[in-house]
Amino acid sequence: MINYVTGFMFSQDLLNVGLIKKLKPKWQNGLYNGIGGKVEHDESPYEAIAREFQEETGVETKPDEWKLYVTLTRPDIYRVYFLCMISDKVHNIRTTEEEIVKLLPCDALPKNVIHNLRWLIPLALDKSLAMTTPICIEEIKNP
User: Any transmembrane segments, and where (predicted)?
Assistant: First the structure.
């Protein structure tokens, strides 16, 4: 199984989020997604998101600044760890690789976002939820 991380850094006022306009994989081309990538075999999801976030945005974070709030698993194929943090460091994000990084308003996401961001972002921002463990979602295998 391949493990991935996707991170959402929100501004302190919770109005903005840093997203990346994907080129790869092909099905994500032209769509905005959270920032992330593959988890290396010797690292935790927290270490992976700190590394990926710095590589893709130029902004340094510490693993313990991130909060894991959702895991999405397709059995035997992949698992995606969704993490978030609140920091005005998000105003310092910049494009460092081929894929464009942007600060976007949380309440007016563009039409070209990965579909699950429409519920993942509000879930991360919902102050009425006091989660002690992440929400775990297992995708149903095709019949």
Answer: none
Residue 138: per-residue pLDDT = 94
d(CA 43, CA 51): 10
Return the closest-CA partner of residue 36 out of 106, 114, 89.
Answer: 114
pLDDT recorded at residue 96:
95
Identity at 123, one-letter amino acid code: L
Residues in the chain: 143
Under 8 Å between Cβ of 99 and 56: yes
Nearest of 1, 16, 14 to residue 104 by alpha carbon: 16
pLDDT of residue 143: 56
* CB contact set of 14 (below 8 Å; sequence gap of 6+): 86, 106, 125
**Domain contains 143:** no
Domain extent, residue 69, equals 2-138
Residue 101 CA from chain centroid, whole number? 12
Question: Which residues of the chain carry a pLDDT beneath 70?
Answer: 142-143
Hey, is 69 helix, strand or coil?
strand
Q: Is the peptide bond before 105 cis (omega within 30 degrees of 0)?
A: no
